[in-house]
Amino acid sequence: MQRIMTDQNPRPAAYAGLARFAATFPKRWRTLPGNVRGAFWILAASVLFSVMSAAVKTAGTRLDIFQIAFFRCAVGLLVILPFMARTGSHVFKTRRPVMHIVRSLTGLVAMFCGFYAITHLPLADATAITFAKPLFMIVLAVLFLGEVVRWRRWSATAVGFLGVLIMIDPGDNGLDPAMAAALAGTLCVAVVVVLVKRLSTTEAPLTILFTFGIVSTLGSAVPAMLVWQTPTGSDLALLMLIGSLGASGQFCMIRGFRVGEATALVPFEYSQLLFAGLLGYVLFANVPTANTLAGAALIVLSTLYIAVREAKLGKKPPAKASVQAPAPVAFDGDPDSRREDNDGPRNVRPSS
Length: 352
Hints:
Strand content: under 5%
Number of strands: 0
Low-confidence stretches: 1-6, 317-352
Order of helices and strands: HHHHHHHHHHHHHHH
Shape: globular
Structural class: mainly alpha
Distance between the termini: 74 Å
Number of domains: 1
Largest sheet: none
Mean pLDDT: 80
């Protein structure tokens, strides 16, 4: 009887199978093409960012966005401190303190705006607006970086901004404050990308990370104290989760764009729209409107075209730098981003 029960118990065999899979997984992972591995990293990042947005929306029902942002910044700073200590004292030095402060404060404003939008808009709407970042980057790159943009990308940019107008739908009542905050936050993120591009010519990535962590934590502490509510145990756990998800999501995003080609991975980044829409529907009963779907479609199509166009231009010897869209820049949470210039594919950063 004992032998029969043992033979019928599938657990030992299942555990053995899991052990074999775990032992062979690293080797199998390394044999996958770079774009396949990158796609998995991007999908993981999209899930993490979507869950973080849902957590922010949940926390926002009890806590102010300034307090939520403070914990997001503080946890992100704690994540990179061990890597700062391991790297050496040179990463604490900077040649451009003023630009670091401007970049950090702009990033902090972007976070405030983004969290306000998340807590007041359906998750799908707040997420879709963020994908307009490459459209703002086109304009900023022309104005401040002297980059040349031809009519094709200007046309795609115009179509993308048409999608933004459809989404925000000003109507007779004017622009919704939450939509205005989402747009302002997206513009600030685009400004941050341009500033980081300039800083990266002289500054180490970890230096940019560290200064952002310090300035944003101190900067968010002041408004957080003005609206401070002692968090309960569940609130504190949720706030720590938000900080951890944000740092982990950025880590996965940068890993993905390091091992894969940007144009191959950009479509997977838009999976965040799907995950955000599903979480919004399941957790908050948010149903995307027709305007949201139509506007998001135009934004996605236009930014995809810009990304493909950038890839084609990147294969030619360019006279001037072009604008990348919408791959992220390594400035928020990648402990190994100091190796990006050596290990990453050439088309991950804007060409110069």
